[in-house]
Amino acid sequence: MQIGEVAERTELSLRTIRHYEETGLVVPSARSQGGFRLYTEADVARLMVIRRMKPLGFTLEEMRDLLAATDRLDSGDALSDDERCALLELVGGFERAAAERVTKLRTQLSRAEEFAATLRQRLAGAPSPQ
């Protein structure tokens, strides 16, 4: 699929997708004869991983590290037990970091909801303007 369809499916801008290509996070699987970027379902899945990591505050380098680990695990290449364990430990570290960040975001959201409720209460109790 072309970049426009990928942008629509991932809810990422064309500019963002191109930026991720420039940084090496996601490289289109092919190019059309006219030079258009062509993406596969695997490319879209990779972009979705990045999109999900972004609001949790992961850096581009962290994204790159996780993607490299999962690529290696999914490659089908023979891995030594030590390498497989190291890669799984790395992915586990990302899972733990994501869980911690989700917890922090939930706390922030709860505080924001409390603030919005306080403002609603203030408005509900305010006298009507004459």
UniProtKB/TrEMBL annotation:
Assigned keywords, A-Z: DNA-binding
Keyword DNA-binding: yes
Any Pfam family: MerR_1
SMART domains xref list: HTH_MERR
Superkingdom per UniProt: Bacteria
Span of domain HTH merR-type: 1-69
Bilayer-crossing regions: none
Name of the protein: MerR family transcriptional regulator
Organism annotation: Streptomyces varsoviensis
Lineage: Bacteria, Bacillati, Actinomycetota, Actinomycetes, Kitasatosporales
